[in-house]
């Protein structure tokens, strides 16, 4: 990058240049503009003007002043250009002076270092060369030995191969046609081998088919048998079930019979004991009755005597006694009921135990079903893990899409698309560039000079457009940050215009687009290349770009404001009275009240201004002519809103990434669906098993209810027994109460009691005597009967014991039969399951075998077709007739030669390769030896080198080059100093010439003003005289001329240039 350095004099250069293209038609307007700038100036020293006495003289003076002014302007412009060029050359010379000084110092230091370290450098090179020579020697020796070994082996192999070849040739000579036979025999044998393989394969396949067919037939027979067996087993199971049910019924009947026999045995035991007691009692009662009869007779006689003195109370006592006897009968009945109730407890207890057994069985079944639920719970957990894994993979995919979406630039960062759309149809950036190149094609000698970038080249516009600088400038100008900076700078411009009491400029999209191209093109020549050289008007569609004024600036940093130069600096000059357009043109463009639209672009500069910003601003009039209606016009806020809306829109890449993210997020993967379906299946399976558990729990509830009902029945029965026993106690209490009442009555009435006692006694004695007498036969009979009853009870007991044993044996027999029947049923069911499994296995095996059989049949058919083809192919080979054993002899010799020939070729290749390696190592060794000799020689020479004696280091190229570079740098330095001094003199000379030309120009302007004023005075008098405006005059107030000048001459004809040497800024 070329930098402009500060020079001693602070120099301001201003030029106004008129385009040769429009000079003739717009010159008057340009002169009018100049007059506007200098009309208030006083007459300069040395300028004399004599007023004319006639209009013709005034007209001649005016024409002469105009010509003088044109000539002075041309000379001043030429001087200005010459001065600018002198200043530029001075800066180039200054830079060259500094660069040459640095180059000289570097060259001298490098030469000094080389001389200083020369011996050490070549000593190190010598050591390196010696080590390299040693390694090369070792490598060559190793390779040479290996090559000799290989050559010896190769010689032996060649001899063996030749002998084998001679033997083979002898056999060929001995048996003509043997080689043809061998070739055909090889094909014949190969096909025969294939045929044999196919035959073997077909034979094997045939065996496999036969085996499979046999297995299929066996399986068909087996399936018939297994199907029959299944049916038979089903019939057996049904039969065994019937037998088991019958055995169970018989067992229940036997158990009932056993219970009855046991009860009868207990009754027989009780009967026997009763009979024995009765006999004993009867015998005792008979003996007691006889003794008592005698005693009772005596007691009666005595009682009858005692009664005679007492009253009769028999009847009352007898009634009370009858009540007592009746109550005792009730007690006996109640006791009988208790015994009956206790007898009913047995069956109830048995029912309770059966219910408990059923309950335990139901609980076992519940455990089995709960275990099944636990197993399916494990299955569900595994399926949940599968679902989680699938969901994790899905979430990872979603996250990946989200990350990709987030990583994608969401909003636009470049406004190129918006600029092209908003500018106008066929008026995008590319179209402007194409139109520019089309214009260029009309001028084949059009060239762009790069001398301002210290590049001594001239490019065509096509080269410029193709260059990376240009492409980068276009791209950078439409970047988001630079678009907003352009808007900000337009706002800055409007702020300045408001301060001047002027309306704000609006933004024209065509000017914005054109500004981008103009900025990029102008950076190459650092001037109004695009605008001033007519590259922007007359497009392919016949229209023209809106024209106006252009401001350019380079060298400002991104945080600096180009309006500091355009406006602030130039306004200061303007306020000092300077009206020179080349010095205050930027300022005048900004404050021109005719302009109402603008376009602006900013981008990083390149070349000499690299590291700074390039700015371009257009000024024009919206709709002044048809050609100015290109594009759309907005207020700054409206345009900024359009830009905001454009940059706020998501990019197509982001929308695509967002759509992909939403698609992945909302579309459940098949893996997840499958995992969830499997989980749902397991959950449904669990629901079925849980329902089975609930059903079993209901069964348990029923069984528990059965147990509780049995227990309730027992409890109710015990309650009945308790109530019955309580009733017995109550009835006994009644007997006791009645007895106590009778006893009390007798105690309270002694006489009567005695009478009653005596009567009772007599009565009792009578009754007893009667009873004894009446009962005596009975007792005697009872004794006989009880003896008979005892005998019968003994017989009955014996029978019941026998019957109980029979019943027990019968129960055991029936139990054994039932268990055998149950086992037989279980065995038959197991056999049925086995039969069904065998049947299903046989059918499945049959399906497999049938498929294998079909496959084998297809393979056999295919192989047989191939076999037929191979046989045909073999039959087509006609083997020559040779003696027996000839082919074997030939084949043996051929094989031997082939092996030895391959061995020779292999060794030959190895020898060739190793020869190459050895030659290379020999070459390296020679080079290493030469290098060592050379390094030793150079080392010795390095000791003799004297930097002051060129002859001593002429063989050291680096020293010779370093000394040469040092001398060149010295000469360059001297030339640079001389050039700088000459450039400085040229600047002083150019400044003087410019000063003189400016003075002459000022005097010409003053003269022109006087001549113009004098001529206009005559015109005014003439107009007054004729009463009308003269058509021959100069109308300085013609607004249309002003507009024409500003829209055409202001941009295409006048270039404003201001160069400040105090800062690294440049404005055009």
Explain what this protein looks like in three dimensions:
- This protein is mainly alpha-helical and 1068 residues long.
- Helices cover 78% and strands 4% of the residues.
- The protein is built from 22 helices and 10 strands.
- It has helices spanning 23-38, 55-116, 118-174, 178-307, 314-343, 345-407, 416-423, 429-442, 461-466, 468-477, 480-499, 509-525, 529-532, 563-575, 581-591, 636-648, 652-666, 670-748, 750-875, 886-942, 957-1026, 1039-1053; strands at residues 12-15, 448-449, 458-459, 506-508, 548-556, 597-604, 613-620, 633-634, 1057-1060, 1065-1067.
- It has an 8-stranded mixed β-sheet with strand order 1-9-10-5-7-6-4-8, sandwiched between helices. Strands 2-3 form a two-stranded antiparallel ribbon.
- A hairpin with an 8-residue loop joins strand 2 (448-449) and strand 3 (458-459).
- The longest helix is centred in the N-terminal third of the chain and has 130 residues, at 178-307.
- It is elongated and about 220 Å long.
- The relative contact order is 0.19.
Quick summary:
This protein has 1068 residues and is mainly α. Helix content is 78%, strand content 4%. Strand 2 (448-449) and strand 3 (458-459) form a beta hairpin.
Work out the number of β strands: 10
Class from secondary-structure proportions: mainly alpha
Averaged pLDDT: 81
The order of strands across the largest sheet is 1-9-10-5-7-6-4-8
Q: Percent of residues in beta strands?
A: under 5%
The Rg value, from CA coordinates, equals 71 Å
The low-confidence parts are 1-46, 1028-1063
Enumerate how many helices there are, as a single number: 22
Query: Helix fraction?
Result: over 70%
Largest sheet: 8 strands, mixed
Question: Based on the structure, what is the oligomeric state of the protein chains?
Answer: single chain
Q: How far is it from the N-terminal to the C-terminal residue, by CA?
A: 20 Å
Shape: elongated
């Amino acid at each position: 990058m070329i930098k402009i350095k500060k020079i001693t004099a602070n120099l301001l250069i201003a030029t106004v240049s008129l385009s040769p293209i429009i000079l003739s038609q717009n010159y008057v307007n340009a002169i009018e503009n100049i007059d506007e700038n200098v009309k208030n100036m006083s007459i300069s020293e040395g300028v004399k003007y004599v007023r004319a006495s006639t209009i013709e003289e005034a007209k001649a003076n005016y024409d002469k002043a105009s010509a003088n002014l044109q000539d002075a302007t041309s000379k001043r412009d030429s001087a200005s250009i010459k001065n600018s060029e002198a200043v530029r050359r001075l800066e180039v010379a200054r830079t060259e002076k500094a660069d040459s000084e640095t180059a000289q110092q570097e060259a001298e230091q490098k030469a000094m270092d080389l001389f200083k370290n020369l011996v050490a450098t070549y000593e190190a090179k010598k050591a390196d060369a010696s080590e390299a020579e040693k390694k090369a020697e070792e490598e060559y020796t190793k390779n040479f030995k290996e090559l000799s070994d290989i050559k010896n082996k190769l010689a032996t192999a060649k001899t063996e191969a030749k002998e084998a070849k001679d033997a083979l040739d002898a056999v060929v000579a001995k048996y003509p046609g043997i080689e043809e036979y061998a070739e055909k025999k090889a094909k014949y044998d190969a096909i025969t081998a294939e045929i044999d393989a196919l035959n073997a394969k077909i034979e094997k396949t045939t065996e496999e088919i036969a085996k499979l067919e046999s297995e299929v037939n066996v399986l068909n027979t087996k399936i018939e048998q297994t199907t029959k067996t299944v049916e038979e087993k089903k019939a057996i199971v049904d039969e065994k079930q019937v037998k088991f049910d019958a055995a169970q019924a018989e067992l229940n009947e036997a158990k009932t019979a056993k219970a009855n026999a046991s009860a009868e045995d207990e009754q027989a035991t009780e009967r026997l004991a009763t009979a024995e007691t009765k006999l004993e009692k009867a015998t005792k009662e008979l003996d007691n009755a006889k003794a008592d009869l005698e005693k009772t007779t005596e007691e009666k006689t005595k009682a009858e005597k005692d009664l005679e003195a007492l009253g009769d109370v028999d009847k009352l006592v007898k009634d009370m006694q009858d009540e007592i006897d009746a109550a005792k009968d009730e007690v006996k009945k109640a006791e009988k009921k208790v015994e009956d109730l206790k007898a009913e407890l047995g069956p109830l207890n048995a029912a309770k135990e059966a219910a408990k057994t059923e309950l335990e069985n139901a609980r076992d079944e519940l455990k089995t079903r709960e275990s099944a639920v636990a197993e399916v719970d494990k299955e569900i957990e595994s399926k949940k893990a599968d679902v989680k894994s699938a969901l994790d993979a899905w979430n990872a995919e979603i996250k990946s899409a989200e990350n990709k979406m987030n990583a994608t630039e969401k909003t636009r960062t470049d406004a190129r698309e918006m600029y092209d759309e908003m500018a106008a149809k066929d008026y995008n950036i590319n179209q402007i560039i194409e139109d520019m190149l089309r214009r260029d094609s009309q001028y084949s000698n059009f060239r762009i000079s790069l001398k301002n970038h210290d590049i001594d080249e001239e490019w065509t516009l096509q080269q410029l457009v193709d260059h990376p600088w240009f492409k980068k400038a276009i791209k950078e100008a439409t970047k988001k940050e630079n678009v907003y900076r352009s808007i900000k700078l337009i706002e800055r411009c409007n702020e300045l215009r408001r301060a001047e009491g002027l309306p704000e400029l609006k933004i024209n999209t065509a000017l914005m687009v054109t500004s981008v191209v103009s900025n990029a093109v102008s950076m190459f020549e650092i001037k109004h290349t695009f605008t001033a050289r007519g590259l922007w008007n007359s497009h392919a569609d016949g229209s023209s770009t809106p024209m106006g004024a252009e401001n350019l600036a380079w060298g400002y940093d991104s945080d600096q404001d180009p309006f500091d130069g355009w406006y602030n600096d130039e306004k200061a000059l303007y306020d000092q009275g300077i009206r020179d357009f080349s010095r205050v043109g930027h300022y005048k463009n900004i404050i021109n009240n005719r302009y109402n639209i603008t376009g602006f672009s900013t981008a990083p500069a390149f070349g000499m201004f690299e590291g700074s910003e390039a700015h371009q601003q257009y000024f024009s009039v919206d709709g002044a002519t048809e050609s100015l209606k290109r594009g759309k016009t907005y207020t700054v806020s409206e345009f900024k809103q359009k830009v905001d809306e454009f940059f706020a829109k998501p990019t197509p890449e982001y929308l695509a990434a967002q759509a992909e993210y939403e698609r992945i997020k909302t579309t459940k993967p098949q893996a997840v669906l499958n995992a969830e379906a499997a989980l749902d299946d397991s959950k449904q399976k669990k629901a079925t098993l849980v329902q089975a558990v609930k059903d079993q729990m209901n069964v348990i509830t029923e069984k528990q209810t059965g147990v509780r009902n049995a227990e309730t029945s027992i409890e109710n029965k015990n309650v009945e027994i308790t109530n019955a026993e309580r009733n017995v106690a109550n009835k006994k209490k009644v007997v006791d109460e009645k007895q106590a009442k009778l006893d009390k009555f007798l105690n309270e009435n002694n006489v009567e009691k005695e009478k009653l006692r005596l009567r009772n006694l007599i009565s009792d004695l009578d009754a007893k005597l009667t009873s004894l007498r009446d009962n005596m036969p009975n007792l005697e009979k009872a004794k006989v009967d009880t003896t008979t009853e005892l005998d019968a009870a003994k017989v009955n007991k014996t029978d019941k014991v026998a019957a109980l044993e029979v019943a027990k044996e019968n129960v055991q027999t029936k139990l054994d039969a039932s268990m055998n029947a149950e086992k037989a049923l279980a065995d038959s069911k197991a056999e049925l399951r086995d039969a069904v499994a065998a049947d299903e296995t046989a059918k499945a095996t049959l399906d497999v075998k049938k498929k294998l059989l079909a496959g084998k049949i297809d393979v056999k058919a295919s192989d047989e077709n191939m076999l037929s083809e191979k046989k045909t192919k073999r039959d087509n080979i006609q083997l020559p007739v040779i003696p027996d054993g000839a082919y074997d002899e030939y084949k043996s010799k051929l094989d031997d030669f082939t092996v030895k020939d391959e061995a020779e070729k292999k060794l030959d290749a190895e020898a060739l390769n190793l020869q190459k390696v050895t030659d290379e190592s020999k070459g390296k060794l020679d080079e290493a030896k030469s290098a060592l000799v050379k390094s030793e020689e150079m080392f010795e020479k390095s000791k003799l080198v004297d930097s002051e004696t060129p002859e001593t280091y002429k063989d050291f190229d680096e020293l010779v080059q370093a000394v040469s570079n040092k001398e060149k740098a010295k000469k360059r330095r001297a030339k640079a100093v001389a050039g700088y001094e000459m450039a400085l003199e040229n600047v002083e000379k150019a400044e003087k010439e410019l000063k003189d030309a400016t003075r002459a120009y000022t005097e010409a302007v003053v003269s022109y003003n006087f001549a113009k004023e004098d001529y206009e005075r005559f015109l005014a008098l003439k107009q007054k005289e004729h009463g009308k405006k003269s058509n021959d005059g100069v109308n300085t107030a013609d607004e249309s001329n002003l507009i024409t000048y500003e829209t055409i001459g202001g941009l295409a004809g006048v270039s404003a240039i201001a160069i400040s040497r105090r800062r690294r800024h440049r404005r055009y």
